[in-house]
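Our preliminary data section would be incomplete without showing what the modeling component actually yields. Below, a chain of 791 amino acids is followed by its predicted structure, encoded as tokens that our downstream tools consume directly.
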Amino acid sequence: MKTHPEQLQTQTNAPKSPLVGMGTTYAMGTFNDNFFKQATMLLAAGLGMQLLQGVATVLFALPFVLFSAWAGWIADRYPKRKVIISSKYLELFAMIIGGLILCGVHGLPSSVYWGGILFVIFTMSFQSTFFSPALNGAIPEHFSAAQVPKVNAILKLATTVTILMGIALGGIMLDLPALAVFENLAPAALAQDSHVSGRIGITLIAVFVSLVGIVTAHIIKKTPLPPFSRAPFPLWGPVDSLRQLGALVKTDPALFLAIIGEAFFYGISLYVINCLNNLGKQLAFSNTQISLLSVALMMGVCIGAFIAGRHEAAIWRKSLVPSGLSITAGLFLAGLSPCLPSAIQFGGLFFILTLTGIGGGFYLIPLVSFVQIRPAAFEKGKILGVSNFSSFLAILLSGLMFSLMSAASPDMLLLLGGIFALGFMIWAGHRSRGLPDNRLSDVCISPLGFFARFFLKLRYKFTVRGLDQIPAPTPDAPILFLPNHPALIDPFIVYAHLSGVHPRPLADARQFDNLPGRLVVKLLKMVVIPDSQKDGAQAHPGIIRGMEAITRALSTEGNNVLFYPSGRIYRSDREAMGANSGAAGLIKAIPGLRVVLIRTTGLWGSRFSYGFTGNRPSFFRELGKGILILLANFLFFTPRRKIKLEFVESPDLPRTGDKTQLNPWLDVFYNAAQRPAFTVPCFFWQGSGEKVLMGTNTREEKKEKAVISAEMEYAVYRAIRETAGLCPDESLTREKTLGADLGMDSFMLMALSARLGDSGKPLVKKGRELVTVGDCLDAVAENELTKNKGL
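Predicted structure:
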């Protein structure tokens, strides 16, 4: 079935739905999980019960390993809102029981006391196992597909903040001074230790947070029950998950590596947090200081995640080993922290853990994003279930290993963790190098492109679509990239997103006729061609040589090429291919040539476009202004323009070599997602809203209007008709375009410019171009006016 090019445009977002209920109930649950567990494990560490931390970690992970398949089956079979609310009531029950045990109301024996604490931790994890798939499965029922990634990002931020708060507050509450009112309420607890106020405070906070979670769970909207699931109950769910994970080794080794890499992160993170509790006791830190060590680690993860979130998931193969080695280095340095002078031990360890967390955040986010977008739509749920199973299996194994080695000193445990992480990174690096580059997203990143995109993202916010759907190029099957050209800056944006495949761009010979330009041409292997409008007929041989070089690059040298089919930037908010024949000629000359279309949306109206003032922009002048704007906004606070890049390899692209078929098809594709000219504020204190520009004139204003005589007008019309091969009586108006309406290609325009000029010299100079019949009339008249003034 044929696909019309405008059908390739992206779907608009649906109206936003409330997020308060989902976000709050999710955040309250993650807070309680970490708040209660951190507080009780600090109590255990203070009593020398290091083994208990490993057991607690195992019990917290065990329900996810055993019951994830069951939880997913229930979430598919019953209304998700009811499952969420039921799990929140189970959380409240667990917190009430945990509070009673924690306060030691009845003077419980030690074995019963700590056994009860472990039971509560297991129950909390059990309810989370059923809560998680229900809430995550409800997100697509409340939000459009385009909104789901943003919603997930908001939830990730909210839960990370509450995890940090829970870990920090767990230690702070235990360090509260004794209060008389609490001592009178729980005299039995006072006889055990001095943490009476903290124990009762922990109970009250945990119960209150559970109640808030229940209230906000009821805010979640009801949705229609999905079609009845006929899937059998997964009695052997963990076995099936393990089998599916093993199958990925052959069917999708990249996805297998990403899932294992994600599991490694969660396993090593829990291992480190357990070590930090014991290390803090070894270094005589307070409970508050010990909790702050975990906060430093997770704060670093947030920073690293924020940095990684500015990049696409495709960077995971490039970032996996470097960011993983930064985690490894952090573990070794943390293990050596007892060697620091006591005065700087806490500060030094806090700094080390923050840097380690930054590396961890940059490691994790690309992996998680890749696991989410890699699977086909019909198996995303299954793959995400396998990922969840793998991560908590790693947490379970981490707890077991910590329990087995708990007799060792915590600094030695951190060093052993560093050795394990180093071994894993060596294995992961070896696996990564052996992965097939089967998607364009796998190979489009390079160090040059990474840094270029980092600086571009200070001013632009990119949405990139389609890279993961296009097979990677090979020497035997290179790609001809055909982008639209809305502004002077878009070639840099496009190249930054494709630098890993080293596409050879075309360049204007005049612009690069200097030492820096020649270096850039050599570095990027650019194909330089003269400007037909500025050089006239003299440009013809150079253009022929340039097109021959492009043909060789694609057909015999195996190079990818970045070719702008329109040959110029937008003069209006629409692409106009006109009669340009370059793209059609290349497609005809190379049978079977792979062609990827690139549609850039959001640059019309920027300072680098005609849409900003109506006049031709100066690249270096606007670049200088842009640098000053970034500095005035302290780089990272600059309002950002939203840019969308869409990569499409369409099977319906006309391949006859006929420009009259290809060019209109390309016009429709490029203009399917057009936007009016708009600007964004230059400074953060001006806000971030877009402002539509009205009435922008895209023709340069003329200082003096020249009048053309009737005889000269007739001569110009005759030259146009003869050059374009039109009938002598063909009707011409000033508004008709030479390319789109009259069918002139670049060679015809060169011939026309030379014919209308003096002594064969091109008519138009200094950046002026012949676009319409009126441009020809005005240029000839102005040329005559200039000569008369000279006389």
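The radius of gyration is 33 Å. Residues 6-16, 697-704 have pLDDT under 50 and may be disordered. Preliminary results of this kind motivate Aim 1 of the renewal.
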